[in-house]
Design goal:
The protein is α/β, with parallel strands linked by helices and about 375 residues long. It folds into two domains: about 140 residues, Rossmann fold (3-Layer(aba) Sandwich), CATH 3.40.50.2000; about 210 residues, Glycogen Phosphorylase B (Rossmann fold, 3-Layer(aba) Sandwich). The protein is about 40% helix and about 10% strand. It is built from 16 helices and ten strands. The strands form two sheets. Strands 3-2-1-4-5 form a five-stranded parallel β-sheet, sandwiched between helices. It has a five-stranded parallel β-sheet with strand order 7-6-8-9-10, sandwiched between helices. α14 packs antiparallel against α15. The protein is globular. The termini are far apart.
Length: about 375
């Protein structure tokens, strides 16, 4: 039996879909599981033990337009037939692709239904999904397949070339533990101030860590903002690496301090403790899993207010991140740094529970000022 799974964007969402492979393999140990994803992401999944083949979808290049889509679908169809086609993207293009591949049965990840809900989603105004981790929501959509419960931790592969590139970038660490700072996020509403990241970085450097700035070409402004605010010079940044190189750098880091962004999910997949700063989006859905780290946020009644951070703050103050200080984040990151990588996630979570009391008091003191 052959099963085709499709998820092409975004990077973090795609990484979080990998427990689906694990569940499918547990349900059908002899099945061939094929995965269609972005060509840029494919190296992260090629070599995963649960996958038979990874197909590189390049809609802006060789698969551009209807002709390119048809050609790609014909190529994949020739590797079939497929008993199941599982669309974890559920966009018009992926739906059309699966129609052309013609699996015997199709399932799709449906987050919302009806024209009103779809329109609200496009405007960034859809109801917040906050009932569980993203991986669990994917598996929930596949309930008709009666898949067994599996570990929800994401998994990726770090290719040797990416590992070598990371070694070159981090050579200046001279054996010191590496703390990665990832200030970027696709949507501005999810970004914590670069100056706050710099405060955390300097606190980690004061305890012997060497700093690396983590992000891609789209994060250059945030990376430079952190670099300018730091008192400690970082050993480099990952903006010149591909996504596999970024993952390799995170795999060599003792802790990652980040917002709600793709590096958080990559770090979980390579076993690096994560300290994630959350505000408008759901930490329950997008935050680190138990044992992988922790999410820190101000306990405000208005948060979470957005699924992805597309729109601005509905109340106009953005207090969830503007009012979140650096000190508690630094304390949690230091707890992870002092522990080894295996215990760092639990150490960070324990420290976060201690820091939650003053954070809650801070939020309560500011409640009158934060009312719309």
């Amino acid at each position: 039996m052959r099963i085709l799974v499709v998820r092409t964007s975004a990077l973090g969402d795609t990484v979080l879909a990998t427990p689906v492979f694990r569940a499918l393999r547990a349900r059908w140990p002899e099945a061939e599981i094929h995965f269609v994803t972005s060509g840029a992401f494919a190296p992260l999944f090629e070599g995963l033990p649960d996958l038979h083949r990874v197909w590189r979808w390049e809609p802006k290049e060789r698969h551009a337009g209807l002709r390119g889509l048809s050609r790609f679908a014909a190529e994949v169809r020739a590797a079939g037939p497929f008993a199941f086609g599982i669309d974890l993207q559920n966009k018009a293009r992926t739906s059309a692709f699966l129609s052309l591949v013609r699996p015997a049965r199709r399932l799709a990840f449906v987050k919302r239904s009806g024209l009103v809900e779809v329109a609200r989603s496009l405007a960034g105004d859809d109801p917040v999904l906050d009932r569980g981790p993203a991986a669990a929501l994917y598996l929930e959509a596949l309930a008709p397949l009666e898949l067994p419960a599996v570990d929800l931790r994401p998994s990726i592969v770090v290719p040797p070339a990416a590992a070598a590139a990371a070694d070159r970038l981090l050579a200046g660490a001279d054996g010191a533990p590496i703390a990665a700072l990832a200030p970027g996020a696709r949507w501005a509403l999810k970004r914590w101030a670069p100056e706050r990241f710099a405060e955390v970085g300097d606190a980690l450097a004061a305890k012997g860590a060497r700093l690396v700035l983590a992000g891609g070409p789209g994060d250059l402004r945030e990376l430079e903002g952190v670099r300018a605010a730091l008192r400690t010079m970082p050993i480099g940044d990952t903006a010149g690496l591909d996504v596999a190189g970024l993952a390799a750098v995170l795999a060599r880091s003792a802790v990652l301090v980040t917002g709600d962004s793709a590096p958080s999910h990559l770090a979980q997949a390579v076993g690096t403790p994560v300290v994630a700063v959350f505000g408008p989006t759901s930490a329950r859905r997008w935050g680190p899993l138990a044992g992988a780290g922790t999410a820190l946020s101000l306990p405000l009644a208005c948060s979470p207010c957005s699924n992805h951070g597309k729109r601005g703050c509905p109340l106009g103050h953005h207090a969830c991140l503007v009012d979140l200080p650096a000190d508690p984040v630094a304390a949690v990151a230091l707890a992870a740094l002092r522990a080894d990588r295996e215990a760092g996630g639990d150490a960070a979570a324990a420290a976060a529970r201690r820091e939650l009391v003053p954070l809650a008091a801070r939020a309560a003191r500011g409640a009158r000022e934060l009312r719309p």
